[in-house]
Amino acid sequence: MEDGWNSARLFCDFFWRWFVISKDLRINDEIRAREVRLVGEEGEQLGIVQLRDAQRIAAEKSLDLVEIAPTAKPPVCKIMDYGKYKYEQAKRDKEARKKQKTMEIKEVKLRPNIEDHDFETKARNAQRFLNDGDKVKVTIMFRGREVTHPELGRTLCLRLAEFCKAEANIERDPKLEGRNMIMILAPVKHD
Fold this sequence. Notes:
- The chain folds into two domains: 2-98, Translation initiation factor 3 (IF-3), N-terminal domain (Ubiquitin-like (UB roll), Roll), CATH 3.10.20; 105-187, Translation initiation factor 3 (IF-3), C-terminal domain (Translation Initiation Factor IF3).
- Helices cover 41% and strands 29% of the residues.
- The chain has helices at residues 2-22, 51-60, 82-99, 116-131, 150-163, and strands spanning 26-27, 35-39, 45-50, 64-69, 76-80, 105-110, 135-141, 168-177, 180-187.
- Residues 15-22 have low confidence and may be disordered.
- One of its GO terms (molecular function) is translation initiation factor activity.
- Belongs to the IF-3 family.
């Protein structure tokens, strides 16, 4: 039974490598052109050669022949260690993703008759979110007959925007949606 699992695992590993690698570039026997423009390991031009000669040169150096420009006439192939190339490319992609900042939308919920101290606490939270580079969704929740006075919610939204004016711009003005009034603040871009 265990032998069956090992063969299944090997098949999955082979399939995964084939699927991931074959989507990028053609290597070695996957190249279909008769002749190719060959580039050496260090980037030197070796000229236009027959495909089998290029594969032989790569095999003598224990490296791979990789088709880097399949649409060129003739296709451009480079001699390189493909495994090392894929590893370095994955490393570069990971580093680029690490430096990338994803902006989130944080929410601050208020009521129209909020007390001053509670308002200041919520406003400081909004400032903290904006300083972290996140957008802030300000939601004023109306209950019962409070919805008949949307001007209270609008005033509260603008008061919060005034409190955070050094850190934020109003991206979306206060708008009543059902029983909630929503405003979105975006962090100020500092040059």
